[in-house]
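Dear colleague,

Following up on yesterday's call, I've attached the two folding results inline so they're easy to grep. Please treat them as preliminary; we haven't cross-checked anything against experimental data yet. The first protein's sequence and structure tokens come first.
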Amino acid sequence: MDFLRKKIDQLKPHFSAGGRFSRFQSVFEGLETFIFVPNTVTFKGSHVRDHLDLKRTMTMVILALLPVFLFGAYNIGLQHFRSLGVETGMMENFWFGFLKILPLVVVSYGVGLGIEFIAAQIRGHEINEGFLVTGLLIPLIMPIDIPLWMLAIATAFAVIIGKEVFGGTGMNVFNPALVARAFLFFAYPAWMTGDKVWTEGLTNGAKIVDGFSGATPLALCAAGESTKLPSFLEMFIGTIPGSIGETSTLAILIGALILVVTGVGSWKIIVSVFAGGLGMGLLLNAFAVNAYMELPFYYHYVMGSFAFGAVFMATDPVSASQTETGKWIYGFLIGVLSVLIRVVNPAYPEGVMLAILLMNMFAPLIDYYVVQSNINRRIKRGKVALNKQKV
């Protein structure tokens, strides 16, 4: 590493102001900070003020995503070979799934980082590490058979419209990964809904064994077939059809533990999202008029992307509420809306995406009223203390 450090230091003057390649300074700094911890601080956008800089924060999130990624690769192979009626081992399932995920990850990072490098170069800004997490989140919330060109367009849309137009890392209002999914959901709904998209090979007309269904638990409930749901344990472990990284609640909770222990993710938001889901689930149980409304509240935790959204999407430090009280309100409303959208409007079986994006928009307003409420209480206490002094 000393050799690499010396080489970078030798090249640095050429990319600094006044050097021959000074116009590529932001690109050089981006590559340098990718290899070594930077010795500078950010000037706007995201600010990390303790021993964890932005790069290390993103690294911890990626580490928390590893259990989800590894299980997702295994489950892709498992669902594929199940559809063919073939018995395979764990490593064969994992290797098959890994080779299917790899092109999606490469396209996501290639397109996203390419745009970020170009944007930083045009503006003359330093390159932030924010997309290191987004680049992995985007493939994990996609169907495995999504065409690569479609993923490239969605990633470009998310980076340009969902992030760069607001000023880049730390300035975006909406979670960029969810912007990518929302874009595909409305622009290419046939590739984001239906039973075939969740199991590799079915969109290509692969022959499947009798009795196999590629339907997700949410799709079954939306179709009024909740009696055909897999067992709660099977949904908790994640051996069911679904988006690459969203099926295993167990793997997601392991990631949540990493985020909470390291202080990177807000446990208040995570807990409040689950609390909101619990409250709305119990309320729907009390006024149930169909089988979907009668579903036990805890089933919503292991279906679709509820757990994934609560842990990795709702806790985004940029688009979430910043005040401590605001985090409770923000998370609770996400949980409430997620279950409500699922049950009341089956046309959008995955309500988590819409709920988080909606609350991203209202997060600044929540924080404003929380801060204003604190100010008003302090003013009131000050007036009471002043009156006592006069008496």
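Below is the second protein, in the same order (sequence, then structure):
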Amino acid sequence: MTNRYCIVVPHYRHVPQLGRFLPDLAAADLPLLVVDDGSGTRELNALQELLSTYDWTTLIERPTNGGKGAATLTGLVAAKERDFSHVILVDADGQHDPADVVRIAAESREHPDALFSGSPQFGSDIPAARLYGREITNVLARLESGNFGLRDAMCGLRVYPIDLTLPLGRACGSRTRMEMDTELLVRACWSGLEVRYLKTRVIYPEEGASHFRMGWDNVRMVAMHITLLVSALVKVPLAKLRKVTA
């Protein structure tokens, strides 16, 4: 079967940012599914108006806000229903270089059974708190996955082989907000799914907006790391045993 790719953009109240970013995504020459995660009537109307001018886009509406992970899973299911084999996940806020979407798609076609993740190359515009928090998460993810070659656990630019990724996402249970990007990568390592990386430039636009809640989302991240560290006591040895006996 020929592999078929589409782009999925989880969206929550990012219409101005997506509007600036969307025209450049046309260079990828791929269908785009925008999953709105319960943004509300006013934002949804603006998003519908924006997407109506691009015939290669499809809007998928979630009635309530479930988080980025929930929107990602909705996008994976919708893509599978449309007979796509791979999803290129891209953030809605314009942090990613559209040229890297083209590059990561080309790399994935050479290795279709691998999960691809961006390996962020930051400039001086990254807030210090985000940089330090990211490094802490990366260290913990390496311990949890047993993969010390893991480069970055939080990058929003990824390629997911749908059939291999959906079970991993569903295994995350209720952890369907910002923490799912990290947990999916850890679970991919546990399952033996090959993870490859592509260097990608990440910017923090002055007009950008983050929906990360410093209090509650950090609590969720801590809870996820505790769960994964405990699970790793069993999962990591099993993953290494599979490699030895394969």
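For the second protein, one point worth flagging: The beta strands are 5-11, 32-37, 57-62, 86-89, 115-122, 158-161, 195-202.

Best wishes,
A.L.
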